[in-house]
Amino acid sequence: MFAAKRLLRPLPIRRTLSTTSCIRSDALFVHRDTPYNNPKIPFEFSTENMKRAEEIISHYPPQYKKAAVIPLLDLGQRQNKGWTSISVMNYVAKLLEMPPMRVYEVATFYTMFNREPIGQNFVQVCTTTPCMLRGSYEILDTVCQTLGGIKPGMTTKDGKFTVIEVECQGACSNAPMMVVNDDFYEDLTPETTKKVLQAFAKGQKPKSGPQGGRHTSENSAGLTALSSKPYGPGEFCSPEFA
Fold first, then answer.
1. Cβ contacts of residue 76 below 8 Å, gap of 6+?
2. Among 45, 57, 121, 149, which is least packed by CB within 10 angstroms?
C-alpha cells in the first residue's frame, strides 16, 4: 500500500529554459567600453560635414531640431569609416541638445547603424523570401567562400570586407541581390557574384544594378505589355466628351 501511494504521488515538473545568446543580445543593446569604442575617443564633424549637418538641421523648426538625429547619425557613421561609435552618438546628442539616451535608443533600434567596426566594403546579402526562392543562400555561400571562408557577421583578415545577412532591401523583382556599400547588385548568379567581389578586392567599383544584362527590372524577354503608343486625352471617348 505504501508503494502504491508513492506511485500515485505526482512527479515534479521540470521546466527547461531557453535563453538568447548573451553575445548577440549585448551587441544589440548594451555598450561596454573597449579600447576602440569608448567616450574618451574624440569625435567631431569635419568642416565639410558640419556645413552639411547645419543644412540638415535647418530643415526643422528650432524646437524640433532633434528630429535630425537619424540623418546626423548617418553622417557621423559615414565619417567614422562606416560604424557608429559611442563617441559619434554623444557628439550628435550634444549637437542636437538632446539626452544621450535618446540617441542611443535610435542607434540601437535601426539596424542600418553599425555598432561595431566594419570592413572597407560592407556586403549585405538579402535572404528574405523572394531572394531565397531565387537562390540567395547560394549567393551568400558564394560570398563567404570567395572571401576566404568567413561567415556572416565576420570581417576578412585584411579588413576589406564585412558580410552580413539582411532582410528585404526592396529589389524583389531583381532577386537575388546584395548591397555593397551604397550600391545594389541584382539578378546575381554565383559567377557574377564572384566577379563583383573580385572587382571590389582590386579597388574597382563594378557597375551596379542587374548583372544579367537586362535594363532595371524590365522583362528579360522583352516587353509583354505597354508595347503600343499610349493614347492621348480625348481619344476613344464618346463625341460629347472628346
1. 43, 45, 49, 84, 88, 91, 92
2. 149
Backbone phi and psi for residue 43, each to the nearest 5 degrees, phi listed first: -150, 135
Distance of CA 237 to the CA centre of its chain: 49
Which cell is 36 given? Answer: 576602440
CA distance 87 to 39: 5
Share of the chain above pLDDT 70, in %: 88
The reply, when asked if residue 144 is annotated as ligand binding, is no
**Residue 131 annotated as part of some ligand binding site:** yes
Is 168 assigned a ligand-binding role in the annotation? yes
Listed residue (118, 123, 99, 107) closest to 193, CA to CA: 123
pTM: 0.79
Read off the pLDDT of residues 150-183 as tens digits, 9 standing for 90 and up: 999 999 999 999 999 999 999 999 999 999 999 9
Using pLDDT thresholds of 50, 70 and 90, give the confidence band for residue 8: low
What's 121-210's CATH class?
alpha beta
Please count the other Cβ atoms lying within 10 Å of the Cβ belonging to residue 138.
14
Q: Which CATH number fits domain 47-109: 3.30.70.380, 3.30.70.260, 1.10.3720.10, 1.10.10.1590?
A: 1.10.10.1590
- Position of cell 559567377? 191
One-letter amino acid identity for 159? G
33 phi and psi angles, rounded to 5 deg: -60, 135
